[in-house]
């Protein structure tokens, strides 16, 4: 207890001393590094499981199955090549359509640079993506995330008979795999994922542009249906271990062409699109599209796209090395078509740089967590500011309400809160102060007496889960009208009765513009019943263009401020301070 607290203690009042301390003094500072001793303790996941017909199978089964299929495939392909009809087929379709043009310009520098940058970026994107997944290690095909209905998980079933929050569910990844490999480090992983994605996207757009500006697009864009029989022919030739003649310098065979086409023109855009569709602002803005391609579907498809990339990388790298490594490296790394070692001489130092980047990414992220947050916010701030302007107008129907909404966060555990619950919140007051013309204090009865609004909306937690509920309460625009923020007020700060995970009150800041949305409310009810303690009784915020952590539960005070640098550690909220999240979180 601080000195201020004890001094005020004598003034007898139903309110506890804590609520008399100036609000900002109840906030806590935060570390600028990810300090493991302050962090969620590690917790191992399990070998990933996939569900078919209500039975769970380990993904490790894929290894013997793929092995058997490959061996059988080789035997069958070798048998097939003995057949006259198949020999005739291969003669007819040797591996590339006759009409496919030969590219005479080889592998220009821009293509080789783009290829290398893509490799570097993909390394970071895949690792941070898996880290994000580990924060909610389950995948679903429908909008809600009811335990037991997932189709993929690398976490045990949700334990019954105890409160199990989404944060409890997060698992640890090794530091060489995830970035930064620490349990529940999604805040940092997202900065990596989104900022490198931005670079990857720019690189991709330059490559798209130059592919079509030059003749290089003809390498990877099929222009005739004949690619399909030719691809089959190449598959038989590869599988029979009697490889087709290499002519990659001027044209790719049809199997290469199809896989590159799928990777560049289908898998990459699918990843980008399904990535954006997981955003509350975008999904809630898009109406039917956000409903059909809901967050969990988007997340599952995003994950399947990852598998395509992993499959592609494995197959691509394997074939580069077994179909003439020296000549293949010469083409894509040195841009020459000869038998020199120049490609190898480029490849070794460059791939060593990738290895070094790989090794330092996690330790540096842990050490310089605040910089990762700052750089990420700098790179993505404009995009996030833009997306915050999307009106999150999408409402759903009673039939869409989820049977289960994951609970999250740190529950209140003060005697002050217990007392409030014991008295049915009779002593509860919502205090609205700060840069307003008319500060207000509301009891629960007064809040209930104000005009109420109901909405059925989707909750998007940063960790990846979502769920639909009906929320009812007081529109924030009515509160704004009552308190009249002064012109210099820019943010509304929501203070919780509960502490955050590392102590100090949970709080979060919202732009005033977000408070004016039709669907921003102070919710008193969830699914037609008073909010439960777990979900934020007696009052929580709903702000539908933001992620869940910004919707403070157990709200006791709202303060209007010009800036939030003087609050807590100064980053705009509890999770912004302590878990390196961004204060603008429409994605
Ligand atoms: N006071 C407080 N509010 C909080 C949190 C918290 O830890 N403390 N967690 C947030 C997070 S991360 C989410 S996803 C939602 C979860 O709301 P629910 O438990 O009703 O699903 O509450 C948000 N509000
Ligand atoms: Mo969350």
TrEMBL record:
Listed Polar residues bias regions: 11-23
Keyword Nucleotidyltransferase in annotation: no
InterPro entries: Cyt_b561_bac/Ni-Hgenase (IPR011577), Di-haem_cyt_TM (IPR016174), OxRdtase_Mopterin-bd_dom (IPR000572), OxRdtase_Mopterin-bd_sf (IPR036374)
GO cellular component, one term: plasma membrane
Location of the region described as Disordered in the Swiss-Prot/TrEMBL record: 1-24
GO molecular function: electron transfer activity
Domain Cytochrome b561 bacterial/Ni-hydrogenase residues, every copy: 107-333
Chief subcellular location: membrane
Segments of skewed composition (Basic and acidic residues): 1-10
Pfam families assigned: Ni_hydr_CYTB (PF01292), Oxidored_molyb (PF00174)
Residue ranges of the TM segments: 56-77, 116-134, 191-213, 260-282, 303-324, 344-366
Domain Oxidoreductase molybdopterin-binding residues, every copy: 424-563
KW Membrane (keyword) present: yes
Biological process according to GO: respiratory electron transport chain
Location of this chain's protein in the cell: Cell membrane
Lipid bilayer topology: Multi-pass membrane protein
Keywords assigned: Cell membrane, Membrane, Transmembrane, Transmembrane helix
Protein name per Swiss-Prot or TrEMBL: Oxidoreductase
